[in-house]
Amino acid sequence: MFVPRRLLPTVGCLLLAWIGTGMCGEGTTLSLCDAIRTAMENNPEMLAMGSALAAQKDDIGVARSFLLPQLTLEERAVRTNNPPNVFMMKLNQERFSSSDFAIDRLNSPGPANDFQTLLSLDQPIFLRKAQVGFRMAKQEYAAKKDDYERKKEEIVLKVAQAYLRILTARAYVGVAQKSVDDAKEHRRVAELKYKSDLGLYSDALRAGTRVTEAEQKLIRTRKDLAVAQRWLGLLLGNAEIVDAEDMKLEVPLRDVEYYAAAASSRRDVSAMKTRQENAKYNIRLAESAYFPTLGVRGAYQLNDRTRVFGSEGDSWLVMAYLKWDLFDGAGREFERSKAQHRAAEADQYLRSLKQFASFKVHEAYLAVEEARKNVELSESALATAEEGKRLVKTRFENDLSPIVDLLDVQLSLDHARASVVARRNDYYMAVINLGYESGTIVNDLQVE
Question: CB of 89 within 8 A of CB of 280?
Fold first, then answer.
């Protein structure tokens, strides 16, 4: 659709109003700590990890159950004319008589029914595999707890990133609004000079074009702010806008040795260390196949020829048993060898993770140093740009410089303002990321 040039300012104002009201809307405003706490309660990843942790805890109960008594109730219904079975049925039903010793009845009995009710109790006394498995389940739960805490640090990092993104986007909106105000002032001066026959009409047109460009940039920055607010809301577990408070972050920066020492016990490193220990227990689990199994069993049985749970006859049994697999085709040897290789694999993964964590800490610390210097340079560049703009503006107002020079220096000033905002938040983000890489982010942001 073609829009006449004279209507461009009006259209731009309408778009700005729409961006400011329709897109941004009303939302909750939270501090960084409140946003992090909300994410801990409502973030889908945290909720999923919490369920995974609860499931892992239940695995401990599953492993323990193999060491506890097993009580079983069983009911069977049998009909047969098999001679030995008919003989045993009558004995169990306590209705065996001397006539049943007749050869014809022993060899060719008629069909017989038997309802068998069996209540049995099994109690392992020595079950090496279950004992090792129970200990491994507890170790894996401990590792999963460390995974949960590391996921918490990851969500804290994401929320902090989204929070700083909002602060940056809002500052960009302020910079863009200042650019619009400056561009309008330049247009006003250019139009006054043209009407006073002291300037060119082309200068007024250029100044008007610059206003339109500044308004377009303001629209884009407001859109970016609205997207950043919704992104924070998504991390907090809802689809609504969540805004960030205007605040100056205070994140402590310590020396690199502090972060390097903390990284050696980072949560994911701790989880890997626990799993490395569990890999050694897995060797014991494989070796448990060499041990015998010892247990006791008790049973109480009812038998009846006509009724379920009937009791024409009853009997009980108590026994102890020992089972020892003497040869299984060398499967145990291969299982033990495989477990040893897995343990060696876990050792190398742990060693690699520790080295990688140390590398990431030093990389993040260098990034903090770089970000800090970039803040200083951007602030220096802003001061230079502001002074340059003041001088050129004075020259333009005194007809000593063309408007092109003023527009160019204004563009440089806009970039310098935006750069200061970006570099400051880049510094805060670099410090927060350093805390994440070292595992100190939760303490650094004081969100326990």
Answer: no
Q: What's the pLDDT at 403?
A: 64
Task: Enumerate the β-bridge partners of residue 116.
Answer: 76, 303
**Six-digit token pair at 221?**
């920055």
Over the range 351-389, which residues count as b (16 or more CB within 10 Å of their CB) and which as e?
Answer: eebbeebbebbeebbebbeebbebbeebeebbeebeebb
Residue pLDDT, tens place only, 137-150: 999 999 999 999 99
Cα 160 to the center of its chain, rounded Å? 14
CA–CA dist 42, 60 (Å, integer): 27
pLDDT in tens, 297-314: 999 999 998 889 888 889
* Greater model confidence, 24 or 239: 239
Q: Which residue ranges form the domains of the chain, and what is each CATH number?
A: 5-444 (1.20.1600.10)
Amino acid at 253: L
**What tokens does 54 get?**
């609860």
3-class secondary-structure state, position 119: strand
3-state secondary structure of 303: strand
CA 298 to chain centre: 49
Q: Which has the closest alpha carbon to 120: 306, 305, 302?
A: 302
Report the mean per-residue pLDDT for the chain: 85
pTM reported for the whole predicted model: 0.80
- CB atoms near residue 40 (< 10 Å): 18
Q: Which percentage of the chain shows pLDDT scores above 70?
A: 92
Who's near 20: CB < 8 A, 6+ residues apart? 222
Q: Say yes or no to pLDDT of 49 above 70.
A: yes
Please enumerate in sequence order all residues whose Cβ is within 8 A of that of 140, keeping only pairs 6 or more positions apart, or say none. Answer: 56, 59, 274, 275, 278
User: Residue 338, SS3?
Assistant: helix
Q: Which residues contact 343 (CB under 8 A, 6 or more apart)?
A: 276, 279, 280, 282, 283
Residue 259 contacts residue 437 (beta carbons within 8 Å)? yes
Please give the structure tokens belonging to residue 123: 């109690």
Structure tokens at 357: 């964590």
Q: How confident is the model at residue 249 (pLDDT cuts 50, 70, 90)?
A: confident
Tell me what the mean pLDDT of segment 214-237 comes to. 90
From residue 225, alpha-carbon distances to 2, 212, 229, 244, 343 in Å are 29, 20, 6, 11, 50
Q: 50 with 174: CB under 8 angstroms?
A: no
| Contact predicate 187/403, CB 8 Å | no
Q: At CA 71, angle to CA 69 and CA 73, rounded to 5?
A: 170
Write out the two tokens for 80: 């047969």
Task: Report the SS3 class of residue 209.
Answer: helix
